[in-house]
């Protein structure tokens, strides 16, 4: 019998009518012979309202324990309402919160940003299967956990997505359905570009990167728990139909690829172009990159200052790039000169945790400084840091930096 984890975000259960529509969609799938576990967030804006009340009444005089207990009331209310509405539609349901002996989500003691205790949670989750075998629809709080002392913990913003995918993993579910306020994953934010199109499919890695860079559809850490055989999709609550297509999330989570340190095996050369106020001239960067692209020369990195642009290319193509860009400098009045630098090494560090790790740049630069390794250039995104050092220091830098992840 097919097992579904259906997670309803706060917007999708934002009022009584939406809750009833959500409950009806669950019952409809149940009546098709499917087993369903429901995960719910706090009703729309509830968590934000709690945070505002805490700020206005307590300010900083609130402990982590108090904060977690207060915030948990949003999900505690949601499960009770949702379970009651499901029962009103003729199907037995049971709500499960952290005070329930069947509660499966166990965490460490980091109360407001807890990490899952995977082994313990997998064991506890088996109790949920007993309810499913009895024809009961369990409704669980998203976002919340319980530590070894029995205290309520929270999984951080987006924690309900983590709950849904993690339960899917623990219960060997066939599908995880994320019910939200969009039709699926769009080509871009439809509030900004009206012609945005819904994607039929998106890979786990693409979804993770999109979420990490600010898309609010799904929490990126949730995808850690997408098993290869579990289907997953994102759908809109408005249709009240869990069987609609939405956007399918394809593929497993490639855990070992998520945290990597790579030393590029070949030397890189620096070509630097200077020109006073060059960045005020429209099209300089476009002309530079087009010149190299038309000659099949890949750019590994580019940095721009007020009066200079530095490009990083493979050393074996550096002389060709040097001559091509020299011709561009001669033809362009805004540019003055260029130079070809010495061999350097390129190291790339990637991790989804970088975005939530204060001080990650200093964690990278400090060991290099302590070992007298000069950084030629450094660039970063939300999930990657690229460091260029002198070629002779490349292997030593790699040995130092791979310990960071």
UniProtKB/TrEMBL annotation:
UniProt keyword annotation of tRNA processing present: no
EC primary class: transferase
Alphabetically ordered keywords of this record: Amino-acid biosynthesis, ATP-binding, Kinase, Nucleotide-binding, Transferase
Database matches in SUPFAM superfamilies: ACT-like, Carbamate kinase-like
EC annotation from Swiss-Prot or TrEMBL: 2.7.2.4
Pfam families: AA_kinase, ACT_7, ACT_9
Pathway info: Amino-acid biosynthesis; L-methionine biosynthesis via de novo pathway; L-homoserine from L-aspartate: step 1/3; Amino-acid biosynthesis; L-lysine biosynthesis via DAP pathway; (S)-tetrahydrodipicolinate from L-aspartate: step 1/4; Amino-acid biosynthesis; L-threonine biosynthesis; L-threonine from L-aspartate: step 1/5
GO biological process: homoserine biosynthetic process; lysine biosynthetic process via diaminopimelate; threonine biosynthetic process
InterPro entries: AceGlu_kinase-like_sf, ACT-like_dom_sf, ACT_Aspartokinase, ACT_dom, Asp/Glu/Uridylate_kinase, Asp_kin_monofn, Asp_kinase, Aspartate_kinase_CS
Entry-linked CDD domains: AAK_AK, ACT_AK-like_2
Membrane-crossing segments per the record: none
GO cellular component: cytosol
Classification via PROSITE patterns: ACT, ASPARTOKINASE
Catalytic activity: L-aspartate + ATP = 4-phospho-L-aspartate + ADP
The ACT domain, residue ranges: 349-405
MF terms in GO: aspartate kinase activity; ATP binding
Family, as annotated: Belongs to the aspartokinase family.
Protein name (record): Aspartokinase
Lineage: Archaea, Methanobacteriati, Methanobacteriota, Methanomada group, Methanobacteria
Gene name for this UniProt entry: lysC
């Amino acid at each position: 019998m097919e097992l579904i984890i259906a997670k309803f975000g706060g917007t999708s259960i934002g009022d009584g009518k939406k809750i009833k529509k959500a409950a009806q969609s669950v019952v409809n799938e149940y009546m098709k012979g499917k087993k369903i576990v429901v995960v719910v967030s706090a009703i729309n804006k509830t968590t934000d309202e709690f945070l505002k009340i805490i700020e206005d009444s307590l300010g900083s005089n609130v402990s982590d324990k108090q904060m977690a207990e207060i915030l948990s009331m949003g999900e505690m209310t949601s499960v009770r309402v949702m379970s009651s509405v499901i029962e009103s539609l003729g199907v037995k349901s049971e709500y499960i919160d952290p005070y329930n002996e069947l509660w499966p989500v166990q965490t460490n003691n980091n109360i407001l940003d807890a990490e899952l205790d995977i082994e313990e949670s997998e064991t506890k989750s088996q109790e949920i299967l007993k309810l499913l075998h009895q024809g009961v629809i369990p409704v669980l709080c998203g976002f919340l956990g319980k530590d070894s002392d029995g205290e309520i913990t929270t999984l951080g913003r987006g924690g309900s997505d983590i709950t849904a995918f993690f339960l899917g993993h623990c219960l060997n579910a066939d599908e995880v359905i994320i019910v939200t306020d969009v039709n699926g994953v769009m080509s871009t934010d439809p509030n900004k570009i009206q012609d945005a199109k819904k994607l039929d499919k998106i890979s786990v890695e693409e979804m993770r990167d999109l979420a990490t860079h600010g898309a609010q559809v799904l929490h990126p850490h949730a995808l850690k728990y997408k098993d290869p055989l579990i289907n997953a999709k994102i759908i809109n609550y408005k249709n009240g139909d869990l069987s609609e297509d939405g956007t399918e999330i394809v593929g497993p989570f490639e855990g070992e690829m998520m945290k990597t340190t790579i030393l590029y095996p070949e030397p890189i050369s620096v070509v630097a172009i200077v020109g006073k106020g060059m960045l005020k001239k429209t099209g300089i960067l476009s002309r530079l990159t087009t010149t190299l692209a038309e000659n099949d020369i890949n750019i590994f990195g580019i940095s721009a200052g007020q009066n200079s642009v530095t490009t990083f290319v493979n050393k074996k193509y550096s002389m060709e790039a040097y001559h091509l860009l020299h011709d561009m400098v001669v033809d362009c009045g805004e540019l003055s000169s260029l130079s070809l630098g010495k061999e350097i090494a390129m190291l790339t560090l990637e991790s989804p945790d970088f975005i939530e790790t204060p001080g990650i740049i200093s964690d990278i630069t400090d060991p290099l400084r302590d070992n007298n390794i000069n950084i030629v250039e450094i660039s970063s995104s939300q999930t990657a840091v690229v460091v260029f050092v002198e070629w002779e220091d490349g292997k030593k830098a790699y040995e130092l930096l791979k310990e960071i992840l």
